[in-house]
Amino acid sequence: MSGQKIGIVGSGLIGRAWAMLFAAAGYRVELYDLVASQVDAALVEIRSELHRLAAKGTLRGQRSAEEQSALISGCGQLEQLVAGAMHIQECVPEQLALKRTLYGQLDVLLEPHTVVASSTSTFMPSLYTAELKQRAQMLVAHPLNPPYYIPLVELVPAPWTDQPVVERTRQLMLTLGQRPVVLKREVQGFATNRIQYAILNEVWRLVGGGVLSVADADRVLSEGLGLRYALMGALETAHLNAPDGIADYVARFGGEIAAVSASYGPTPDMRGEWETLTQIARQCDELVPLTALPQRRAAREEFLTRLSTLKRQLP
Ligand code: NAI
């Protein structure tokens, strides 16, 4: 598939990251944006980022920074972007009306072999493709930020997405070195946010209930569970944690899991819990003052870079 054309709609944070991932794998990438100056800015920023990564030794792919940069160009018209593209990655802001308008435009331009994948974090594909003629060629391919260092991509089909379209997108993601997971059907929050929110809810309840400080609640993940989960998931962890695997684990611990789970209490609506929010915000600010957020984000990126390098060395 390398050498084929990829179109990216929206050249903000995520559109730029996808452009770099596709170019690293040798695809020809065209970037389109409603705001033409965004494309110019993206091309300049991507080029300097590729050189920065090369200097640090963390550039992906076999080509040099300059070769990868040369694979990425700007495009002034949506029609031009779609023409001859095997895959369109949509990266416009998270507003349903905006996505609906854009998909309506794409619907009349699409060639039969072109797949359109949305980077959306929240909208199920049926919300904006239901009325379209070419809806069988559309699905969600949701990355995690920063996609250059986090390989997971959630593929979410609408009820009418063709199965071969899902499989072709899965194969495409693999050629980038990303690690796709396929949801068999669309579900609100996809998989990542459903699991992430379950954790966030319980951490909220533990801190709000006075059981743990913010720092200690976060340590449970960063110094405990997260170390396991950087390597393997919750189910494989359980499978390994009983002498005879997962069925044995459930036989041994199922009663305790059910009892603890029954004690969680109602799902919090964080917007209305002012006391807990004030408390958590104060402690978060002690942990990382608002003025230090940019440095802490940079440290996270550095950490993720090293972790992804280390993970690639593991069997
Ligand atoms: P952004 O605001 O950085 O970039 C969006 C770009 O789209 C802007 O350059 C804007 O000018 C352009 N745009 C707006 N309307 C357009 C149109 N009709 N046609 C072409 N271009 C248009 O947004 P960001 O953060 O890159 O998000 C894009 C998508 O990726 C969203 O759906 C978001 O949910 C998803 N996403 C974002 C993540 C994040 O951490 N920011 C993580 C994973 C997914």
From TrEMBL:
Entry keyword Oxidoreductase: yes
MF terms in GO: L-gulonate 3-dehydrogenase activity; NAD+ binding
Stretch forming the signal peptide: none
Family: Belongs to the 3-hydroxyacyl-CoA dehydrogenase family.
Record has Oxidoreductase as a keyword: yes
Pfam families, alphabetized: 3HCDH, 3HCDH_N
Domain 3-hydroxyacyl-CoA dehydrogenase C-terminal: 189-255
This protein's UniProt keywords: Oxidoreductase
SUPFAM superfamilies: 6-phosphogluconate dehydrogenase C-terminal domain-like, NAD(P)-binding Rossmann-fold domains
Protein name (database record): Lambda-crystallin homolog
GO BP terms in the entry: fatty acid metabolic process
Domain spans labelled 3-hydroxyacyl-CoA dehydrogenase NAD binding: 5-184
PANTHER family: 3-HYDROXYACYL-COA DEHYDROGENASE FAMILY PROTEIN (PTHR48075), LAMBDA-CRYSTALLIN HOMOLOG (PTHR48075:SF1)
